[in-house]
Structures are given as structure tokens and as C-alpha cells.
Write a structure and sequence with these properties.
The relative contact order is 0.10. Strands 8-12-11-13-14-10-15-16 form an 8-stranded mixed sheet, with helices on both faces. A 6-stranded antiparallel β-barrel has the order 1-2-5-4-3-6. The chain is built from 16 helices and 16 strands. Helix 10 runs parallel beside helix 13. It has about 500 residues and is α/β, with parallel strands linked by helices.
Length: about 500
Amino acid sequence: MTTRGQDIVSLIRRQIEEFGGELSLVDVGTVVQVGDGIASIQGLQGVRSNELLDFGNNIMGLALNLESDLVGAAILGDPNAVKEGDRVRSTGQIIEVPVGDALVGRVVDPLGRPLDGKGPVVTTTTHPVERVAPNVVIRKSVDTPVQTGIKAIDAMIPIGRGQRELIIGDRSTGKTAIALDAIINQKGGDLICIYVAIGQKQGKVAQVVGTLEENGAMAHTIVVNAGASDPAPMQYIAPYAGCAMAEAFMEQGKDTLIVYDDLTKHAWAYRQMSLLLRRPAGREAYPGDIFYLHSRLLERAARLDQEHGGGSMTALPIIETQAGDVSAYIPTNVISITDGQIYLEPELFNFGIRPAVNVGLSVSRVGGAAQTRAIRRVAGRLRLDLAQYRELATFAQFGTADLDAATRAQLARGQLATEVLKQGQYKPLSMEQEVIVLFAVNAGLMGDIPLPRCAAFEEQLLRYMSSTHPEIGQAIAQSRDLNQETETKLTQAINEFKATFATQGS
């Protein structure tokens, strides 16, 4: 047989062997209208909600509106690169994000693509962005604290693992600072933290990343960034993407903390998309499902029982109010979903009381269940003293000469508590340090310290305790309680220090 004949035979044989290969059908549509990051597509008959669409040129889209003859899709990328008449292919894939340990320490976009210039994120596992929240049967009650390192919060508004605690306040009142303190305080611990920046300026996000790196917190943190210049669809999926990353760790039995900064801008992005998709508008032009937007996100925060790994996800959503209006639409929605709120007041912030926590309006619906016994013992009277002080302070400003001794003592206790709860930014304290300081206040051992010197007293006391009596702090940290013997030693040590502090101050 000639060479040519052999070639023909081998070709026929190969075609016979390959006959019966699977055929794949691809759903293809055509862009009929595009504008403001939203494309209307004709011809995609089998597409599903939240399915990824391929516009070509490495641009993806997200199917949101499924109508009888049109599909409304959000463009995840440069909207100017898509034009009328372009071919669109369905991928058959519901939107997913990469998850796993490879993301820890990285800055990524909502699709898991790196933004920090440290090379690709190498992970083979993905999770769907949208998932149904864990049901009530597999949840466990919240009883383990998330130590934020902030005295005012750990003592009066405790946060537990699996809780959803809202941080709410006007612009520039220290909302992000509280969330970052909580992340920084987990250094060396077992909590994996995720910070989701939604609609923030790139400069602010760079500042946050820089702060976390300076304090050694990026080693246990993932930053998901959908900046102010990113399209609304990217801002919309950012918190769900961060939540999916946290869920992957939770299902492995690990504890996670996720910060959504902030959900006000998330609601704005969703409103923009909904109006462009021609969805009916309701109150303040938000669509009818704006409550569901945040409830299905925050309900995914939970503490699982031991049969399901025992992991947890703690959520700290942030909401920015306008002129202190907590009764606006989005703030009331999120307040009703969460397990309490930390309300930051501009007046307190401007008076130099930082963190500017309003004790009257702030609450944790988990309460003492999420506190260690040591903190619970020393923080019992603190909230009451502060609440009574705030009431009396209004009358006391007209003069204290006519007030009786009991009222003056109450005012003095409140002023001291207010002064002690002030704390510098990015200076979280350990649990035993908080117990020592709050014990000194509660036991009346700081009653004779002048208010302007309280900060110096606290700083030097903690230094003295760690160098001279480290065993007391170690005993509190190990037992997480404050027994009679430890209280006696602590009182004695503080009195010893006061003698030297008085000498230094004279």
C-alpha cells in the first residue's frame, strides 16, 4: 500500500474511533440595548438567575432579570467595551468565588482576582456567592466572646462568635476604626478576618490595608475591595463574595469575623442597578426587595453546632447615617435584622470621647452570654453608672453647689467611667488588661485620681502589672474569671502602684 493510502486509512480509523464524542449546546444571545453597565439580551432561552454570561474580550456579566423575551444582565467589567449587536454566551455556571487559605493576607476584587500585585491566587476550591443561610436546627447559641480590645464594647456591648452587631453612626465618627481595632486584636488568635470595602475611596482602602500591615493583622485577614470607581454590579456582589469566603472557613470548623464597610453604599449600588433594570421603585426609590438584600446576607452569619463542625461567622455590618437619623429606611432595616447595634455619636466624638459610643442607644441582644466571667464581674455597674451620669450631667451643667452628696458622688463616678473608657485608635487591650483597669474603677481605687491624669494612670498601671505582677494577669487569662484570691492580690498591687504614681505626680 502506498504512503498516501496508509494516511487515508489511519485518518478514517481515527475518525471512526472519535465518532460518538459528546456534543455541547451553547446558549447564544445578542445584545439589543446597553447603557450604564446594564445590557438587555435577546435569545438566551435557558439562562438561570445569577448565571455568568460571557460577553467576549474577557468581560463577564451577571443575569439578573429573566423575562419572556429579554434577559437583563449587569456587566462585571468595563461597560464601554460592550456594544449593541455583540454576541453573548451563557456559561451554565452560577457566579462563584475562589475560597481557601490562599486568599488570607491578600487584597482581591469581588471575583477573587488579586489587586495587590503579589501574583495569582492559587486555589482550586470555589463557593457560590449566593447561598441559603444555615437553618435554625444546625445553629448553636452564642456564648463565646469576640474580644475587640475596646473597653467600652467588651464591657457594655459584648460581641459573641456567630453574632451580627451593627456599627452605626454619621460620617467620620470612628465606625471603621472600631472594626479595624477588632481585626487587629485577633493577632495571634484563631479568628480569620475578612474586611469588605464597598464603594470606598481607593485612598481609604489603601490606608486600611497599610494599617493592618503595620499592626501585623494582614497575616489573618482577607480584604475584598469594590471601590467607588468600580461598576455598581461589583459593589453589589462584594459582600456576598466576602461572605462566601468566610463560609468556607466556617464549614471547616474555624471561626471568622467579617466586616461590611458599608451597607449603605451597598444599598445605593443595588438601587442603581434595580432602576436601570426597570424594576418597580418603592420608598426612597429603593426596590421592594431591599430588606431581603441585607437579610439574606446577614442571616448567613451563625455559629454551627458540633455535628456541623462548630465553626462560626461573626458579622460587623457598618451603616452610615445622615445627621444622626437612625429612623431612616436602610438603618431601620438593618437594625431589625442584627443582634444589636453600636451607635456612635458625633457630639461625643467632637467632645473628645473616643470611641464615641452612645451607651443609651447601643445594645447587644446577646448580652452577658458573650462575655467572660471576669469581664462580667467588673463591668456590672458600668453601664448603669454611665446612664445615670448622662441624665444628671444635663442638670449639673447649671452648677453643682445645690446638689446633694449622693448626686455629686454619682456624677464623679460617671465622669471617671467616661474618662477611663476613652481609648486610642489601633490600641486594643487584652482581656486581662481590660479586667485590671475596670476592676480599679469599680473597686473605687481610682476615685482620688484627677481626671486629666486617668489616661497616664491606666497606661503606667498596665506597665507596672505586666512587669512586677505578671502572675495576676496570667491567672485572669487562664481562668477567665476573677476569684476572691485574685481580687485581693489585684487590690494590693494597685494600691502599691498608687503610692509610686502619687510620688511621680507630685
